Model the fold of this input.
Amino acid sequence: MFHLLQSANEKRSPLFDVTDAYRVVNGAADGFPGLTIDKFGDRYQLQFFGPELLRRKGEIVASLKSLFNPVCVVVKERLSSAGKSLENAPMDVVLGSREDAVGVVREGKAKFHVDLMDTINPGLFLDMRHVRLEVEERFRAMGEGARFLNLFSYTCSFSVHARIGGAAVATNADISGKILDKGRENYALNGLDLRPGEFFRGNAIEYARWAKKKGLRFDGIVLDPPSFARFKGFNFNVREHLMPLVAECAELLNPNGFFMVSSNYSEFNLSTFARDVLAFVAQVHPNAKTAWKKSQDIDFVGSGSTKDSCLVATLVEV
Done:
């Protein structure tokens, strides 16, 4: 088990200078069926999506301890005894303390707070790292006054990178006030001041329509929704509502801007998804073109082979 874990980690060596937060093990593709292991600095998160390796949990934790000397290891069991996926999964600290589960990670020039015991998600989605870094570089290449819109912003990691890259304003829209507070904490952690209009509590559709009425325009937009969300009686379903929202957001995009759209919904096909996004954007910007379409980064070995490791993402330039 030790050598298998060591081999998996070595596959991620191109990321070592980029970040201290990455996926060390991505299930069967790394020889660990039903298991993912994520590194968040000196903290490690094990997620069991199947029963295959549960009985060897102690051995896996011992190998982690021997190889990495972690401050904290958290285990989350994401599958019920009936074989159903659990969103409110049991979480246990098996090494270290509850306090040790909280820390800061590095990603390029940015830093982010994480808490492995807060919810299923520790505060940073690792599979979007390569896109966040690109957003930063794109704003670095823009002139002064460039504006960014981050819908379904979660803890505002895209916006932190945009502001580090030089965005004048990075607006975050999310339904959770608690999550937006975590975004403000990430701004503070990176020495970023809070600017007017950067935090909006509400759903993304609501914000897009409000922004249109106000005549707001942006040079970069990221639309990275959950598969399902509920807010004030409205149920967002990515299959039904995403593409119409893409069309609405396209109206907020400045000429020469970019628009990144992504989803972890396992039923989406990458080529079809990218084609549909381009078609909806082109209704507003006829000269729009697809800059790229991609899935998860190199630490997500075998991406797309299981429902717990899938991503479709595309970036359109107008």
In short: The chain has a mean pLDDT of 94. The chain is about 30% helix and 30% strand.
